[in-house]
Design a protein that fits this description.
The protein is an alpha+beta fold. 17% of the residues lie in helices and 38% in strands. The structure holds zinc ion (ZN).
């Protein structure tokens, strides 16, 4: 047992100290091989505050083994060590899983961190649980599915794993583009790609048994097309080829078809971005773009944006923003523009800002709805980049009746990129972009920067419209005794709503019942309600294969720079009231945080899967502590924003 592991349930206020907190005793008990007596507390060493997590309320009753996670026949993601949690429904029992003692909490809950059982047949494995309470014994054989094992052929013979041959449903490519096709097979052998008019090289990658061919698209097209299809440029041709693997004596073949369309670089197809119901990426009039077909989100294009397409891979299309700059979007997020549509290009003329009480608005008429990008290099600056644009800006009207806009600059960048930098005399509160169609292909870009709301220095919460989003359902984590995260989040949401209203704020709780609500439904509701801040309340769980003891604590997520400070102050508020481990603030690509019209954060206050956290989250007093921490963080954020804006206006006046 290490020193760290002995300091269970305690909290040390020393930010940044990773040894600050403690592991659950369950692992220590497993490691030392002795049974638990159910004891919870150990004396805290000097300098370490006792945790104020409420004690787990004891439960006694009949023995009844139940595994909450992994679910029966659930396929888990790891095959070495994993957690298993559930309950024996009585606190006075002992529990052995696969021969190891696992601590039973006073309410019967348990969580173990154990070697994953070996498969008995195929990919099915069983945890063997034995619980004892006096003369009562309950046993459970709990089946799970192990990660699927890739196909292996007869050793020493050439074999190809058919499931590993990666061929897109349809590929569009530029003629000089390199295509990659690969397969997994017997390591250390000769491989080639057999096409109609000859062989193409395939090499074994540094990963043994993984064979890769990199072939220029036009070359592949020419070698593998059927004779009459070889001239079908600009149309999709189903190419036929085969991988061959040989040990010099024997060989094996795997035929495949590859639907390929060679694009004419001088006449790229043009698409318009659309928002479909239930789109994977549609959100509040925005279509998201990714640097890789299945990579993280990076761009937020307004619906109506037009762009040239220079590639396609299955259900993803590749938009060309600038030379050597591409964004992938879902096929469902696009519709073809008219067959003769010209590439979207526009001049950018004079600019006129309209300064309103709650926003600064810029309307830019364009010859086409160009792809765009918005960045926030610092707390009071917003950069708008238009792709396919040439600056023809001679004059900029900063807006009458206000000094809210401090400075505006534009610069022409290589690759027809026009970058506009707007610096405010106050903090940036949010932004949004939308296209309004004009006649023909023309469109008006409506670019709005959200202004700081009026903040009362005596009571920063007074009158502020604060959106509370109790996370889930759908999905969500469940604790060992079956308590559902969505219910905990709702309880905390109600508590926060009450407290904010009592403090003079104007809270908007966007889920009041236990029915499912979509993520974009939530952010849309927040915008429609005139929300000024958005707080999504959650409680955490870990993915398979992560040792849970020592990882449990409090974290907060943000996405846009204008939300970062709110994440920090709310994280600090929650640490003050809940006193759990500080897991820190994260930048995270989360749907609700991507909503840019107001500072938006997501809190992960405690861990559903940990028995003591789960028990605390059921407790209304602890829910209120979570809520109070969030509220204090919001108050600190508003007070600091007011303070910062004061400093900015003083600095502005001195110039
Ligand atoms: Zn959640």
């Amino acid at each position: 047992m290490t020193d760290t592991e002995s300091k269970m349930n305690t909290y040390r206020r020393r930010p940044g100290s990773e040894a600050a907190l403690l592991a659950c005793a369950a692992f220590a008990i497993l490691a030392s091989g002795c049974a638990s007596t159910g004891g919870q507390q150990s004396a805290a060493p000097p300098g370490v505050l006792e945790s104020t997590l409420p004690p787990i309320p004891p439960v006694t009753g009949p023995l009844d083994l139940y595994v909450e996670y992994p679910d029966s026949l659930q396929r888990i993601a790891v095959s070495d060590t994993n957690f298993i949690h559930g309950t024996v429904r009585t606190g006075d029992a002992t529990l052995i899983i696969d021969g190891a003692f696992v601590e039973v909490q006073p309410n019967g809950a348990f969580i173990g961190w154990l070697p994953v059982p070996r498969a008995t047949a195929g990919d099915t494995a069983y945890y063997q649980l034995i619980a004892r309470r006096g003369d009562d014994v309950d046993t459970l054989s709990h089946p799970i599915l192990l990660p699927s094992v890739p196909f292996e052929g007869e050793p020493g013979t050439p074999w190809i794993d058919s499931a590993s041959v990666n061929v897109p449903a349809e590929r569009w490519a530029l003629p000089d583009e390199e295509l990659t096709v690969s397969f997994r097979g017997a390591p250390g052998m000769q491989a080639w790609l057999q096409a109609r008019s000859g062989r193409m090289p395939v090499v074994e990658s540094p990963v043994a048994g993984r064979y890769v061919a990199r072939i220029q698209a036009a070359e592949f097209h020419g070698a593998a097309c059927t004779a009459d299809a070889c001239d079908w440029l600009g149309e999709t041709v189903v190419l036929s080829a085969a991988f061959v693997l040989s040990d010099g004596t024997d060989e094996t073949r795997r035929e495949f078809e590859y639907p390929l369309r060679l694009l004419d670089p001088k006449r790229l197809p043009v698409v318009e971005l659309v928002e479909l119901p239930d789109s994977i990426s549609g959100t509040n009039g925005i279509v998201v773009g990714r640097p890789l077909p299945f990579g993280p989100f990076r761009w937020r294009f307004p619906v109506g944006t037009r762009a040239e397409v220079d590639g396609k891979d299955g259900e993803r299309v590749r938009l060309r923003l600038a030379p050597d700059l591409n964004a992938w979007v879902g096929v469902d997020d696009t519709q073809p523009a008219a067959p003769n549509a010209v590439p979207p290009r526009s001049l950018v003329g004079d600019l006129r800002f309209s300064v309103r009480a709650d926003r600064i608005e810029l309307r830019i008429p364009l010859s086409a709805a160009l792809p765009l990008q918005v960045d926030e290099p610092d707390g009071r600056t917003v950069e708008l980049t238009l792709f396919g644009a040439i600056g023809h800006t001679d004059r900029v009207a900063l807006g009458s009746g206000s000094r809210a806009v401090e400075d505006v600059r534009w610069v022409q960048l290589p690759g027809n990129r026009y970058k506009l930098t707007v610096t405010l005399a106050e903090p940036v509160w949010g932004f949004r972009t939308a296209y309004r169609p004009l006649d023909g292909d023309r469109a008006e870009l409506v670019f709005e920067i959200r202004r700081m709301p009026p903040i009362d220095p005596l009571n920063p919460l007074a009158g502020r419209r604060i959106v509370i989003d109790p996370g889930h359902p759908g999905a969500g984590a469940t604790g060992p005794t079956g308590y559902y995260e969505g219910h905990a989040n709702l309880g905390i949401g109600f508590a926060l709503e009450r407290m904010l209203a009592d403090a003079g704020a104007d809270p908007i709780l966007i889920r009041r019942d236990t029915l499912p609500m979509g993520l974009y439904e939530r952010t849309t509701a927040a915008i429609e309600a005139g929300g000024e801040l958005y707080i999504s309340i959650h409680n955490n769980a870990l993915p398979d294969g992560v040792r849970p003891f020592g990882q449990e604590g409090t974290s907060t997520y943000y996405y846009h720079p204008h939300s970062r400070h709110l994440a920090t102050t709310v994280q600090e508020g929650m640490l003050d009231t809940m006193r759990l481990r500080d897991l820190g603030v994260y930048w995270g690509n989360l749907a609700v945080c991507r909503m840019a019209w107001m500072p938006s954060i997501l809190t992960e206050g405690a861990f559903m899967m940990m028995p003591d956290h789960e028990a605390a989250l059921k407790d209304p007093e602890f829910q209120a502590r979570y809520a109070r921490g969030v509220m204090e963080g919001i108050r600190d954020f508003l007070a600091a924003a007011l303070h910062t804006s004061g400093e900015m206006s003083v600095a502005g006046a001195a110039r």
